[in-house]
Amino acid sequence: MLRMRLTEALRHKAARGELRQLLPVGLDYDGDGNVVLSDDEAVRSAISQVYALFAQLGSARQVMTTLRERGLLLPRRKAGSRRITWAEASYPAVHDFLTNPAYAGAYVFGRTRTEKRLDASGHVVSRERELPQEEWEVLITGHHPGYADWEVWQDIQARLRANFKPPRGDGGGAARQGAALLSGLVRCGMCGRMMQVGYSGHGGDAPRYLCGRGTQLYGTPPCQSIGGAYLHRAVLGQLFRVLEPASLEATARAMADAGQRHRDQVAAFELALERARFEADRALRKHDEVEPGNRLVARTLEARLEERLAAMERAEAGLAAARARHPVHLTSEELAWLTRAGADIRAVFDAPATTNSQRKQLIRAVISEITLTIDRPAGTCHALITWQGTATSAITVALPQRGSGAITTSEDTVSLVRRLDDVMATVPRAAQILGVDKTTIYRWLRDGFLAGEQLTPGAPWQIRITQALRGKIRPDVPDGWLPLDQAAKVLGVARQTVLHKVQHGELAAVHVTSGRRKGLRIQVEHDQPGLFDTPHGTKGAVLTMADLARDHADRLVGDGPGDAGGGLAAVAVAVQP
Fold first, then answer.
1. φ, ψ at 127 (rounded to 5°)
2. Helix, strand or coil for residue 32?
3. How far is CA 498 from CA 371, 450, 484, 504, in A?
């Protein structure tokens, strides 16, 4: 009975907000028993930095990693102790600062409940369970000063819950660095389940949204799937059209916020340096007080002094680095211009410095859910975008046709690659590229199978290696192509005449590199004109050697090494009457 009365008295006192509780670091009782903020500026600044970074990053783990990268320490205090210690940021410490309602100025009693039960052996087992906010026994907001408003603290709790790893098949979770910008937002319009994300491609960075939960649970075929690139393009286009009216003062506000955040960070480093200097001075005073001959004590104090001096040097370096990271300062005229012109949110979104996690945070701040229904016969995907606040927009995404994916190379690019692939090579290099002997290269030059250049008579040959030339060298004989002797017999002309026609491009020829039928092969059409066949309206004529040298200086044959009588040729051509 007595215990029950005492417990009831404590409950009545807690209901009035007068029951003294153990306060977390950063909050203390004053002389009148009221809860106030800590008198230590460094403590207040460090806790404020935690809330500022969470508002910027949206993840407790990212806040922890940022604090550790910058070298900022966090205050800690054991229960029932007044002594404050400083340590590197840890996830439990950051999570305590963000989830304790006392930091939001609220008085809370009855956040946990002790449950007792009997185990299999008959022993009593106690377990403490955290209660949801609506089951708290006492909640008094605005009870004392805090580091954040109650509404802000409520938003923080909602964001932390959204960052939890969702159950399988559900959306949500923290925004990560993957390329699937709509992960956790896409719902299947056929079965109502959240669509999962998969990655493919050469580098494993091509996202795809798939409704495969039914396959995992019941072995049914997947409902539908869509490539991420096409969906992202359509949804982001709609998103930025919606955000255009809100971008008028975005840049000016961002600049002002960046400047204030930088000043807060510098102030935190200044306070950390001031605390480090105080600790170093106190260690120095204690070191000076000890007798030099008492080495048992002096060695310990010397080591402690060295540790404090090193901490002070790190604090000075951290302050210098924080001051060097100052944002761009804009004049009043520049701010006024930005206010009028607005911010290019799309440029900021696509900037290389913007991470996928930040892009996802922007998308989730505006879009609540996207419902997809794919119509394969029509080649379209109907997307219903649900904005924050339950407003909706419907868009239609055109699905890609087979063979027209994003990896298709344009014809202009192929043509450019082919032009860039043309090279000039010496005879040995050309033989190596084409996979033949040097004697074969000289024979092709003599037969007109390939083109060569000489800067001066007797200079080394330069062979132009083109895609067309590579296409003329084949491992197999095309159907209907004849050797040189048979081609000459079919056309009723001499072998040399056939070679001249090949040289002038009048006959198509390839060189077969393998098998018993390797060598030159010529395409002879049935209506191919012979030696004495001339086109309609022309008559035959014989050129003199002077005319040949003047008109066909670049087409002379027999200039190969070791050819006697080089430069001599007789060609029958057709001239206009």
1. -145, 130
2. coil
3. 69, 15, 7, 10
**pLDDT band of 443, cuts 50, 70, 90:** confident
For the chain, domains (ranges, CATH) are 13-163 (3.90.1750.20), 409-466 (no CATH)
Quickly count: other Cβ atoms within 10 Å of residue 573's Cβ: 16
* pLDDT given for residue 226 in this prediction: 86
Distance between CA atoms of 249 and 343, rounded to whole angstroms? 7
Residue 363 predicted with pLDDT over 50: yes
Q: At which residue do the structure tokens 């449950």 appear?
A: 115
Question: Residue-wise over 307-320: b if at least 16 C-beta within 10 A, else e?
Answer: ebbebbeebeebbe
pLDDT one-digit tens code per residue, 297-349: 888 888 888 888 888 888 888 888 777 766 655 566 655 655 554 456 777 77
Record the tokens describing residue 152, joined without a space.
């802000």
pLDDT tens, residue by residue, 392-441:
888 888 887 665 444 556 566 656 655 555 677 788 888 887 777 788 88
Q: 388 and 367 in contact (C-beta within 8 Å)?
A: yes
Assign 97 to helix, strand or coil.
helix
Torsion of CA 356, 361, 363, 364, to 10 degrees: 140
DSSP annotation of 101: G
Lookup result for tokens 């033989």: 431
Instruction: Compute the mean pLDDT over every residue in the chain, rounded to the nearest whole number.
Output: 76
Distance of alpha carbon 29 from alpha carbon 114, whole angstroms: 28
pLDDT at 150: 92
Can you read off the two tokens belonging to residue 450? 């390939």
**First-residue to last-residue Cα distance in the chain:** 134
Among candidate residues 553, 556, 554, 550, the one with its CA nearest the CA of residue 570: 556
With a cut of 90, say whether residue 103 has pLDDT above it. Answer: yes
